[in-house]
Amino acid sequence: MKYVVWVACIAMFARPQPIIRRINNNDFEEDGGSITVYVNGACSKNGQADAQGGFGVFWGENHPLNTSEPVRGRATNNRGEIQGAIRAITQALDNGIPRLTIYTDSQYLINCMKVWISGWKQNNWIRSTGDPVRNQENLQELDNLQSRLQLVEWIHVKAKNGNHGNDEANRLAKAGAAMYQPPAPAQEVEPADLQHLDQTSTDDFDF
């Protein structure tokens, strides 16, 4: 009797096995009809001239689409977060994935895509302060890619909280940052994207 109860308790608290869906000869984790992916950005010395930035995309253990790359252009953490999402959606489109759930620990990215972007577009990409929106080019690219999928759901996860997918995306992002090559001297290095610091989790600025 005790053995039966013990087994039942283990089954109750065991992590449910993810649903695996095979698309384009690759296996993807599915939740509620949507494929899941984790993205992350990393930037050492964020906001400094010698900053190094990268992004990571994690689809699953040893997945062929897992990505670790340096940031394109100036290196900031926020740019890494955006470019990670760009890569994830591009990969989804290339592999015939119609519905995507993106997990990120960046409140900045979540707010950009769920709160601020509609107002920015209506205001011709000018903030309420009268300043142009930072990362406009990357955000416009991300918005355009998002519109080509049936659904993109953005879900925030807490950083450094034992979430395996997020930890793996962070590891990939750090590896990408280590590969970063600074832009040519003629290209202006702008300060870190701190325009929404009062509305953004400090996790967004962690390496």
Describe this structure in words.
By secondary structure, the chain is α/β, with parallel strands linked by helices. It has a single domain, classed as Ribonuclease H-like superfamily/Ribonuclease H (Nucleotidyltransferase, domain 5, 2-Layer Sandwich), CATH 3.30.420. Helices cover 35% and strands 22% of the residues. The chain contains five helices and seven strands; from the N terminus they run H-E-E-E-E-E-H-E-H-H-E-H. Strands 1, 2, 3, 4, 5, 6 and 7 form a seven-stranded mixed beta sheet that branches. Strand 1 and strand 2 form a beta hairpin. Helix 2 packs parallel to helix 4. The chain is globular, with a radius of gyration of 19 Å. 35% of the residues are buried. The C terminus is likely disordered.
Give descriptors for this structure:
alpha/beta, globular, Nucleotidyltransferase, domain 5, seven-stranded mixed beta sheet, 207 residues, disordered C terminus, 7 strands
Reported for the largest beta sheet, the result is: 7 strands, mixed
N/C terminus separation: 51 Å
- Tell me the total number of β-strands: 7
Strand content: 15-25%
Radius of gyration: 19 Å
Give the overall pLDDT as a whole number.
Answer: 85
